[in-house]
Amino acid sequence: MAQDGKKLVSEITSMDEDFTQWYTDVVTKAGLISYSNIKGFMVIKPAGYAIWELIQKHLDERFKKTGVTNAYLPMLIPESLLQKEKDHVEGFAPEVAWVTHGGTEPLTERYCVRPTSETLFCDYYKGEIHSYKDLPQVLNQWCSVVRWEKETRPFLRSREFLWQEGHTAHATFEEAEERTQQMLNVYADFLAEDMAIPVIKGQKTEKEKFAGAEATYTVEALMHDGRALQSATSHNFGDGFAKAFEIQYAGKDNKLHHVFQTSWGATTRLIGAMIMVHGDNSGLVLPPRIAPVQVMIVPIQQKKEGVLETAGKMLEALKDFRAKLDDSDRSPGYKFADQEMRGIPLRIEIGPKDIEAGKCVIVRRDTREKIECAIDEVAAKVGELLPKIQQDMYDRAKNHLDTHTFAATTKEEFEEAFKETKGFVKAMWCGDRACEDKIKEDYSVTSRCIPFEQENLSGTCVCCGKPATKMVYWGRAY
Amino acid sequence: MAQDGKKLVSEITSMDEDFTQWYTDVVTKAGLISYSNIKGFMVIKPAGYAIWELIQKHLDERFKKTGVTNAYLPMLIPESLLQKEKDHVEGFAPEVAWVTHGGTEPLTERYCVRPTSETLFCDYYKGEIHSYKDLPQVLNQWCSVVRWEKETRPFLRSREFLWQEGHTAHATFEEAEERTQQMLNVYADFLAEDMAIPVIKGQKTEKEKFAGAEATYTVEALMHDGRALQSATSHNFGDGFAKAFEIQYAGKDNKLHHVFQTSWGATTRLIGAMIMVHGDNSGLVLPPRIAPVQVMIVPIQQKKEGVLETAGKMLEALKDFRAKLDDSDRSPGYKFADQEMRGIPLRIEIGPKDIEAGKCVIVRRDTREKIECAIDEVAAKVGELLPKIQQDMYDRAKNHLDTHTFAATTKEEFEEAFKETKGFVKAMWCGDRACEDKIKEDYSVTSRCIPFEQENLSGTCVCCGKPATKMVYWGRAY
User: Fold this and answer.
1) Residue B254 region, left (φ>0) first, then alpha (ψ -120 to 50), else beta?
2) Which residues in chain B are closer than 8 Å to A94, comparing Cβ atoms?
């Protein structure tokens, strides 16, 4: 590796030394973001946005297969509308951005930039839903939202972020519950299959649920440093919002009924999850299915006769993949380090000697394995390697999750497990908010979820020792 | 047609009677939008948003073919940043929405919701561009923007709208000019080929150009009522913004140079253009390439044995198209009228008698022509009809444009031409702002553009009679 390549990599802090700084180095040096003039508002640069475009593509396809259609609702919410549902306004009002002037005129009522759009969808559905024939309504929107967070970090917690928010209305509670769970499974499958990230599926406690929801479900992922990241959520609102907004339909029985609602969302935070699950000390490692560039061809001694020509033909042969050729005038060493930083799954090295021998070298980003391949078999080999990398990345992440999930049956074991942040700790809980609060205060950890897959670790709560029937995943969270 | 179908159509005002009301009726009855609580902020409903998704898909593909990549910049702009370019702030400050509070705290500086993002891109490029190797920068973003307009109409002039805004930086003025023209051509081709809308390409006058631009180019379309609609614009900024924001690069000569910039945009207004170019008294008429549903199969007497089965097989045979089957329990008459309202290019009617005879009836939305077709030849016939409809729609719009463009060589002819709003009027202009202002005041028309295709209609300005070398398109605009 040439000197300039070494320099590029040496600019990243080692993740073992300082994981937080490693993360910041990666998001900036890999060209994913740059900071703007306003705290918590970031520029998502082309390399970062291209990942988001692929996340959108895969998620949107999965949504549409379940009957979701997209729409677009306003960016601003009148204060009076935000206030209609009591829990919701309490949850969001302290962290919204307020618009007070339109042009040179003060507004008669303040509008907030949407932090989420439940109130807007409710107002819209009130006008759209009259009869059982108008149900279900299954809409989604892709947009940006603003929440005035105090502490901010690129992708993980920003004042503005991009997301999708689905909002549905149904005739019965059961239908709403079914949709809530269906969308949680869409997220879990997407995370596993497209992002190579295994998750724990479960329900949030009353303390941690969404403002205004009857039940919040979550998919929780484990980062490389042992911290948990809530990766997507799906909420069943029951008929609470419908009652606050008076959304009623005439049933087959000719009587008026309130609808039952859900909402579900995933954000640019997924990019943060991907960085912290798969990245290493050389930078990003992108799962092939969401890698904007899957294969980069790097010609060696590219000025020698025939090298660029052969590389160009290879690019043509790889047209079914997201392949590129780096024929810039930078050194191969720089290119190698740069592409490793950017997480490109496969690199193909091809120089005069390779061409003479009719072969090239394919290098995997995830394992650094070098694979010799005949030039005319490159497309077949790439077609075989990309899904293998995707699977291997998932398997490694799953192994990390499994080996960093611990069980605690006593307070001592629980305390011991959280002396360092190593991963999830499973423990029994009595169900009391007081114990949940105490655990948070004593160990700075939060209940991540009550997993759907319950185990009976012991009969008693790790906090108070009283009888317990629920097993909870605890963790230090982003 | 059944009674309920008649009723649906009778709800639309005739376009000859009241074009404005016809437009409002169509956007609401065809389910494209609904109004929100805030004036000028609309809900884009699924039927409207699906059209926008197809516009995005086609435009984005065309952009990417020219080397554009997407990014995302913040939604908010600090007041101090907006003020950096004098003309720009004068143009936009009076019509922006101001955020003054984040959560419960007043901000130390006001932020405006972006009305356009020149200042943000300049601030970003200042940090990214150092050497000639960093050029060109060719970015685009898809987002929503807010401009506090006084008069609002769905899609045509709304306080919030969706759009794309491309922003580029180049080493030379010539390169910037080339990109400006290239993107104008992308818009013109997209409008002609995907939206079936012919346009006049030209340059805006000094009076009408974008705030801060050196030159603004435009594609102007003619609506059914004879009014003009600016459908997309492309701006060459020269180095004006670069000087205000100090964006400099070290050239091959090792000296510092200011970059040259462009921007170009198209908005949800394109949906308004499409409605007003192609619509008729039964509602929308969608060009096949941007029709979310291209073919709707309507079973007749669908409860009779074999009807739904045959219709279902036909849907399967049409899988290469955006086809749907309307098996709802509404009457065929209602379905016909509803689909006409929604502008679906082709309807296929299939009932027991048709099935017995092995045929079906295909009905074109644009001409209402009924075409008998063998059931097993439906896919081939649809594949032949959709591009034909697309072309016919373009040809009719082109014919309308040509027959509604008039030439005036004297003040009297000019006045006569604008007694009613019939279309564009071409006339010679001396180039003086005073004449442009006078024409606007006297006839309530504006200069649409100085077209690239110039004609020498006469030697003198229609307003002042002085020597003139420029031919201008004038029109009443939306």
Assistant:
1) left
2) 103-104
Number of helices and strands in chain A (H, E): 15, 23
Say if the Cβ atoms of B53 and A70 lie within 8 Å. Answer: yes
C-alpha distance from A307 to closest chain B C-alpha (Å): 23
Report residue A6's pLDDT band, with 50, 70 and 90 as the boundaries. Answer: low
A128/B34 CB distance under 8 A: yes
Tokens 């290119």 belong to: A335
CATH of B406-475 among 1.20.120.80, 3.90.226.10, 3.90.25.10, 3.30.110.30: 3.30.110.30
Instruction: Give B225-259 pLDDT, tens digit per residue.
Output: 999 999 999 999 999 999 999 999 999 999 999 99
Q: What's the CA gap between B358 and B130, in Å, rounded? A: 70
pTM check: above 0.90: yes
Can you tell me the ipTM of this complex? Answer: 0.95
Which residue in B36, B81, B102 is closest to A97 by CB distance? B102
Task: Using CB atoms, pick whichever of B38, B96, B111 lies closest to residue A78.
Answer: B38
From residue B176, how far is each of B70, B173, B180, B234 by CA, in Å? 18, 5, 6, 11
Query: Which fold, B14-278?
Result: BirA Bifunctional Protein; domain 2 (3.30.930)
Q: Looking at the complex, report in whole angstroms how far the Cα of residue B260 sits from the nearest Cα belonging to chain A.
A: 20
According to CATH, where is 3.30.110.30 located in chain A?
Answer: 405-475
Record: contact A99-B99, CB cut-off 8 A: yes
- B127 chain-A contacts, CB cut-off 8 A: 34
Cβ contacts of B129 on chain A, cutoff 8 Å: none
Residues in chain B: 478
Query: Which residue in chain A is spatially nearest to B44 when comparing CA positions?
Result: A72
In chain B, list all ranges with CATH 3.30.110.30: 406-475
What are the residue ranges of CATH 3.40.50.800 in chain B?
A: 295-385
Give the residue range(s) of CATH 3.30.930.10 domains in chain B: 14-278
Domain B295-385: which CATH number of 3.30.1330.10, 3.40.50.150, 1.10.760.10, 3.40.50.800:
3.40.50.800
Rounded-to-integer distance, Cα A35 and Cα A54, Å: 23
The verdict on domain A53-278 having CATH code 3.20.20.80 is: no
The topology (CATH level 3) of A405-475 is Translation Initiation Factor IF3 (3.30.110)
Closest partner CB to B162 (pick from A72, A76, A148)? A72
Least confident stretch, A85-94, A281-290, B220-229: A85-94
Q: Do A81 and B37 touch (CB under 8 A)?
A: yes
Would you tell me how many other CB atoms lie within 10 Å of the CB of residue B14?
12
φ/ψ region of B368 (left if φ > 0, alpha if ψ in -120 to 50, else beta) reads left
User: Mean pLDDT of all residues in chain B?
Assistant: 95
Long-range residue pairs from B431-439, CB within 8 A, at least 24 positions apart, any chain: B431/B468, B431/B469, B431/B470, B432/B461, B432/B464, B432/B466, B433/B205, B433/B206, B433/B207, B434/B464, B435/B461, B435/B463, B435/B464, B436/B205, B436/B207, B437/B207, B438/B463, B439/B414, B439/B463, B439/B474
Whether B117 and B167 have beta carbons less than 8 Å apart is answered as yes
Which residues of chain B have a CB within 8 Å of the CB of A36?
73-74, 120, 123-124
pLDDT tens digits, A301-331: 999 999 999 999 999 999 999 999 999 989 9
- C-beta separation of B471 from B450 below 8 A: yes
Measure the CA–CA gap between A196 and A274, rounded to whole angstroms. 8
Pairing of strands A76-78, A105-113: antiparallel
- Note whether A71 contacts B94, CB cutoff 8 Å: no
Strands (E), A66-159: 69-70, 76-78, 97-102, 105-113, 137-146
**How many separate helices (H) and strands (E) can be counted in chain B?**
15, 23
